[in-house]
Amino acid sequence: MHVVDVFRVLIRWLHLVAAVAWVGGSLFYLVALGPAVKEAGGSLKAALGLVDRRFRDLVQLSIVTLLLTGAVMTFDRLQLEPGPAYVATLGVKIALAVWMFLLAQDLASRGRRRLIERRLDPATRDAGGSRGWSWLILALGMVVLLLSDLLKVIGPAAG
Ligand code: HEM
User: Fold this and answer.
1) What is the residue range of 147's domain?
2) pLDDT digits (tens, 9 = 90+) for 38-56
């Protein structure tokens, strides 16, 4: 196996792991963890705050990884002149991914703000809306995964 191919496999693997961590993590958080903690209530709610912070860090790491590996793969695939359908699909995918990144930044800054407010006044309640954003990010992530699959099918054979 040529060293360039080893590099390609590593980049694609890192991209996939970052995608699984963010989209898969969001699915678990919204469908299993969040509702279970809400149902159980009590001390688990405090633990959810800790989970929130750690998951936010994981999402930031995933975003940086997706951007860097995505840029490398984009350059690698486009030099094979894959045709207008591929370029258009990749363009839509990147636009949706950037929208996800912006929503995640907004959520992260809300989370940090809420943490500070809670320290100042423990009675501070969640202003709501964050869950809606989280579901939107998950839905966009599902569409981005579908487009990534489509890219593989309509894309050029491996370089
Ligand atoms: C939420 C963000 C993203 C997710 C969930 C995601 C997910 C994926 C997945 C699952 C694949 C298939 C990997 C494989 O074949 O093993 C892929 C491929 C790819 N991604 Fe992403 N990605 C994201 C963001 C990006 C960004 C921001 C870029 C560009 C800067 C990008 C560029 C690419 C390219 C060029 C491919 C290769 C497609 C092909 O097979 O020709 N991705 N992505």
Assistant:
1) 3-154
2) 888 766 777 888 888 899 9
